[in-house]
């Protein structure tokens, strides 16, 4: 069993364009074991993507305090590629397009990056593995010969993130809004892919706005993030409750002074009542 | 100088070139200064005594310095009457042909000091002639190896003539043997006569200590077509002057150039297509990658002469810089003298996209491999235009090799 631990994580954003420096994460604590599925929910702009990008090692986010560890080994000094090889995978909210590199050669490079020079995966083995995973995800083989994410629809990009996940087989996967922009069928297909990964050696952290995803991928823990902290942790029922009640109730119940992006709307609604 | 026993006309033309060389100015290339390279010097070195290496290659034609090592055409090429000869032989066996075309039609010897110098100091040459109506299927492979076991400068000339309605594919590969510093001075004239089609591939792999002046010039008659695929992968200083003159109506030149600069190297690639004739088409696509503290200048010149009604001229020059010390330029120049034409250009000088690097590395791919992938992606849309998969793979292998060296530092 492996552990991914986030300890008292504080993260600052340095935005050179606006000469803006802001603390986004204000002390996040989280432990995920392989074999577990966690979900994080929370209002827009509270730092969920910041948390995932920081765990992965995006250089735009600066850690000012705290630590991120896999099995007790700190990752914070490692560049992104070493973290990936240590077992992390991030399905990004906005996957990048790269013209001129096929999906196929990209995935082979990713797999072979984890192997010794004298132990590279053969093309035959690779294609067999690819075919199995394409079938799970209802993806056509032609997608793999196209340039990486180039011209992919929003939903195709998300599927392609899961395809990479299935090919790479990390220890821990962070899925940032893997359900956004997916139609109902695609949502089930993507969930099928994630569920196919389930094993005692694989842990998941899902970020989502919708309880619906959690009907397909059952979480062991649901965390609520607000204003740069995890403010509440519960089981799958917590997501159901949030879906029904929204975040304002929870915020007030916990006495948090965060402003929600849609406060004005909520208040306007309240006036109407 | 190994060219002896020459016809009268040649002696006269050479003398005229020598005279012109004394007064003509050096050519100039936008945004690139190379006067210190002293390309207009003949290193006076005692007679060359180095033995010809025996392991150069088994291409159809192999040359080493001023010697033609062998010419071996396939039975099919011979049966079709394809002529490939060392210039020394051609001056006797096909004097009329050489007299008609050598620096009279595509490149004129009195254009500038370097063209004049080439003829005046010529020490080696090749004639390639494809008779009218002959379609050569196999690629004619020509390997030209610079002899850098000595410091002797090379002044060479390749004259390619595709006669009416013929077609031919030529691969000209340039390499260096040895590491002495010298100049490699080569003019390749490519004449595509009426309705002929030439696929000309250049693979330039000269050594770091070889300073190169590479002039490749196409001359296109009515309805002729030349597809150029030029990979400039030299490790030394390079002037590459790649021009096409669309003299015949309906002629078409497609120029695809991929270049890599690394180390402290400086390279200028000056690619021009001139539409002289109505309904002629010239397209230029150039991609360059600059590493280390090197320099690469891409000039793309599209010129449409008055009277070239319905001409088309398009170009795209893009440069990718991988280091802060690199210097790059992508410089489109459109000179248009006619109204009913279609002309366009695009140019960019950019750096590696950090988002792309992050995405690739987030899948565990190391930085050098990610950079290589991004570079490959950048070169991709020109590489896909190469005439054969084999050639594409060959170019990719050369690029990967050069990148591996450069990115390891
Ligand atoms: N690269 C960046 N530059 C500037 N500001 C940023 C950057 N990344 C995040 N932020 C800011 O940090 C805050 C948290 O953003 P983050 O993307 O982590 O939120 P989120 O919880 O994922 O929101 P959503 O649910 O909308 O995806 C936001 O105010 C956002 O504008
Ligand atoms: Mg987000």
> Secondary-structure element sequence of chain B?
HEEHEHHHEEEEEEEEEEEEEEEEHHH
Q: According to CATH, what is the topology of chain A?
A: Rossmann fold
Largest interface: A-B, 27 and 23 residues
Bound molecules: adenosine-5'-triphosphate, magnesium ion
What profile does the largest beta sheet of chain B have?
A: 10 strands, mixed
Q: What is the straight-line distance between the termini of chain A?
A: 52 Å
Spatial sequence of strands, sheet with the most strands of chain A: 6-9-10-3-11-12
Mean of pLDDT of chain A:
91
Number of strands of chain A: 12
Weakly predicted, low-confidence segments of chain A: 266-273
CATH class of chain A: Alpha Beta
CATH architecture of chain A: 3-Layer(aba) Sandwich
Separation, N- and C-terminal Cα atoms of chain B = 42 Å
Oligomer kind:
heterodimer
Major sheet details of chain A: 6 strands, mixed
Overall strand count of chain B: 19
Radius of gyration of chain B: 21 Å
- Helicity of chain B, as a percent range: 10-25%
Write the layout of secondary structure elements.
The complex is a heterodimer of chains A (273) and B (409).
Chain A: E1 3-15, E2 20-33, E3 37-41, H1 48-56, E4 61-70, E5 73-74, H2 80-85, E6 88-91, E7 98-102, H3 103-112, H4 123-136, H5 142-145, E8 147-148, H6 154-168, E9 172-176, H7 184-196, E10 203-207, H8 211-216, E11 221-226, E12 229-234, H9 236-245, H10 247-254, H11 263-272
Parallel strand pairs in A: 3-10, 3-11, 6-9, 9-10
Antiparallel strand pairs in A: 1-2, 1-4, 4-5, 7-8, 11-12
Helix pairs in contact in A: 6-7
Chain B: H1 8-23, E1 61-64, E2 67-71, H2 75-79, E3 83-86, H3 87-93, H4 95-101, H5 113-120, E4 124-130, E5 135-147, E6 154-162, E7 167-177, E8 182-192, E9 197-205, E10 210-220, E11 225-232, E12 238-246, E13 252-261, E14 266-275, E15 281-290, E16 295-304, E17 312-321, E18 327-336, E19 342-351, H6 354-361, H7 367-383, H8 389-408
Parallel strand pairs in B: 1-5, 4-6, 5-7, 6-8, 7-9, 8-10, 9-11, 10-12, 11-13, 12-14, 13-15, 14-16, 15-17, 16-18, 17-19
Antiparallel strand pairs in B: 1-2, 3-4
Helix pairs in contact in B: 1-5, 3-4, 6-7, 7-8
The structure holds adenosine-5'-triphosphate and magnesium ion.
Residues 48-49, 93, 176 of chain A line the site of magnesium ion.
């Amino acid at each position: 069993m492996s552990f991914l631990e986030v300890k008292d994580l504080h993260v600052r954003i340095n935005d050179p364009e606006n000469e803006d420096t802001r603390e986004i994460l204000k002390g996040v604590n989280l432990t995920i074991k392989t074999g577990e599925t966690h979900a994080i929910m929370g209002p827009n702009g509270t730092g969920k993507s910041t948390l995932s990008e920081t765990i992965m090692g995006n250089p735009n986010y600066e850690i000012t305090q705290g630590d991120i560890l896999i099995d007790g080994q700190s990752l914070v000094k490692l560049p992104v590629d070493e973290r990936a090889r240590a077992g992390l995978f991030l399905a990004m909210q906005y996957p990048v397009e790269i013209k001129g590199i096929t999906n196929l050669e990209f995935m082979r490079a990713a797999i072979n990056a984890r192997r010794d020079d004298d132990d590279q995966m053969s093309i035959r083995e690779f294609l067999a593995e690819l075919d199995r995973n394409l079938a799970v995800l209802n993806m056509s083989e032609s997608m793999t010969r196209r340039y990486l994410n180039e011209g992919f629809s929003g939903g195709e990009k998300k599927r392609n993130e899961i395809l990479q996940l299935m090919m790479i087989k990390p220890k821990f996967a962070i899925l940032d809004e893997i359900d956004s922009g997916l139609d109902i069928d695609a949502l089930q297909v993507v969930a099928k892919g994630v569920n196919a990964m389930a094993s005692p050696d694989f842990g998941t952290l899902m970020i989502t706005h919708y309880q619906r995803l959690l009907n397909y991928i059952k979480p062991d823990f649901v965390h609520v993030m607000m204003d740069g902290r995890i403010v509440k942790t519960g089981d799958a029922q917590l997501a159901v409750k949030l879906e029904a009640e929204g975040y304002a109730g929870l915020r007030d119940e916990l006495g948090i002074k965060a402003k929600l992006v849609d406060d004005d709307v909520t208040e306007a609604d309240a006036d109407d009542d | 100088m190994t060219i002896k026993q020459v016809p009268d006309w040649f002696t006269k033309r050479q003398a005229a070139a020598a005279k012109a060389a004394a007064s003509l100015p050096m050519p100039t290339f936008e945004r690139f200064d190379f006067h210190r390279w002293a390309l207009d010097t003949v290193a006076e070195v005692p007679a060359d005594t180095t033995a010809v290496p025996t392991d150069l290659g088994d291409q159809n034609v192999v040359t080493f310095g001023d010697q033609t090592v062998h010419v071996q055409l396939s039975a099919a090429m011979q049966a079709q009457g394809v002529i490939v000869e060392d210039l020394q032989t051609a001056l006797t066996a096909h004097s009329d042909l050489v007299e008609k075309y050598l620096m009279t039609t595509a490149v004129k010897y009195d254009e500038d000091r370097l063209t004049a110098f080439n003829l005046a100091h010529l020490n080696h040459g090749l004639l390639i002639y494809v008779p009218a109506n002959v379609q050569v299927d196999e690629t004619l492979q020509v390997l030209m190896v610079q002899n850098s076991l000595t410091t002797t400068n090379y002044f060479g000339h390749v004259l390619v003539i595709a006669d009416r309605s013929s077609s031919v594919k030529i691969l000209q590969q340039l390499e260096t043997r040895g590491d002495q510093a010298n100049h490699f001075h080569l003019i390749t004239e490519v004449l595509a006569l009426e309705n002929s089609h030439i696929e000309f591939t250049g693979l330039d792999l000269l050594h770091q200590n070889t300073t190169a002046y590479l002039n490749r010039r196409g001359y296109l008659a009515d309805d002729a077509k030349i597809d150029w695929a030029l990979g400039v992968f030299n490790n030394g200083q390079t002037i590459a002057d790649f021009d096409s003159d669309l003299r015949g109506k309906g002629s078409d030149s497609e120029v695809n150039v991929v270049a890599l600069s690394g180390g402290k190297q400086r390279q200028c690639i000056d690619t021009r297509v001139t539409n002289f004739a109505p309904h002629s088409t010239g397209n230029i696509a150039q991609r360059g990658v600059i590493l280390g503290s090197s320099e690469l200048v891409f000039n793309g010149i599209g010129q449409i002469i008055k009277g070239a009604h319905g001409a088309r001229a398009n170009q795209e020059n893009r440069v990718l810089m991988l280091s802060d010390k690199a210097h790059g330029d992508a410089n489109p120049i459109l000179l248009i003298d006619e109204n009913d034409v279609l002309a366009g250009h695009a140019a960019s000088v950019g750096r590696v996209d950090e988002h792309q690097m992050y995405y690739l590395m987030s899948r565990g791919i190391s930085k050098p491999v990610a950079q290589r992938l991004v570079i490959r992606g950048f070169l991709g849309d020109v590489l896909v235009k190469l005439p054969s998969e084999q050639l594409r793979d060959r170019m990719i292998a050369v690029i990967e090799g050069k990148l591996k060296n450069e990115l390891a530092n």
